[in-house]
């Protein structure tokens, strides 16, 4: 189905609109790290990558990284379900 030239998908990725912002336009990645720890195994390279990030990043940098990380997180979890 299309609306205004944009296709709609029932499998849309979460939107990253309301990241917690702290002083000096810093954004917290703490919730993302917690989610990754719950969803990924301890040997996951992706988990190691997320946990290596600082807890707070400048807003512009955080948005770019979080959008990518959320997509990869859901992709890795889906792959693990298929593999079994």
Report a brief summary of the structure.
The chain starts with a strand and ends with a helix. With 84 residues, the protein is α+β, with helices and mostly antiparallel strands. The chain is elongated and about 45 Å long.
Q: What would you say this structure looks like, in words?
A:
The chain is of the alpha+beta class. It has helices spanning 30-39, 45-52, 59-83; strands at residues 2-3, 6-7, 21-22, 26-28, 56-58. The strands form 2 sheets. A 3-stranded antiparallel β-sheet has the order 3-4-5. A two-stranded antiparallel ribbon has the order 1-2. A hairpin with a 2-residue loop joins strand 1 (2-3) and strand 2 (6-7). The longest helix is centred in the last third of the chain and has 25 residues, at 59-83. It is elongated.
Topology (SSEs and partners):
Blueprint (H helix, E strand, L loop, with lengths): L1 E2 L2 E2 L13 E2 L3 E3 L1 H10 L5 H8 L3 E3 H25 L1
Antiparallel strand pairs: 1-2, 3-4, 4-5
What features would you highlight for this structure?
3 helices; 84 residues; elongated
Query: Order of SSEs, N→C?
Result: EEEEHHEH
Mean pLDDT over the residues: 77
N- and C-termini, Cα separation = 32 Å
**What gross morphology would you assign?**
elongated
Residue windows where pLDDT falls under 50 for at least 5 positions: 1-16
Main sheet characteristics: 3 strands, antiparallel
Helix content: 40-55%
Our estimate of the beta-strand percent is 5-15%
Number of helices: 3
- For the largest beta sheet, what order do the strands appear in spatially? 3-4-5
The structure class reads alpha+beta
Count all strands and give the number.
5
The radius of gyration over CA amounts to: 15 Å
């Amino acid at each position: 189905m299309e609306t205004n030239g944009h296709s709609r998908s029932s499998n849309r990725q979460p939107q990253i609109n309301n990241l917690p912002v702290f002083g000096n336009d810093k954004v917290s990645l703490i919730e993302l790290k917690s989610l990754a720890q719950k969803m990924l195994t301890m040997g996951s390279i992706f988990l190691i990558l997320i946990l290596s990030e600082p807890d707070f990043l400048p807003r512009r940098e955080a948005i770019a990284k979080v959008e990518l990380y959320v997509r990869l997180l859901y992709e890795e979890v889906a792959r693990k379900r298929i593999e079994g």
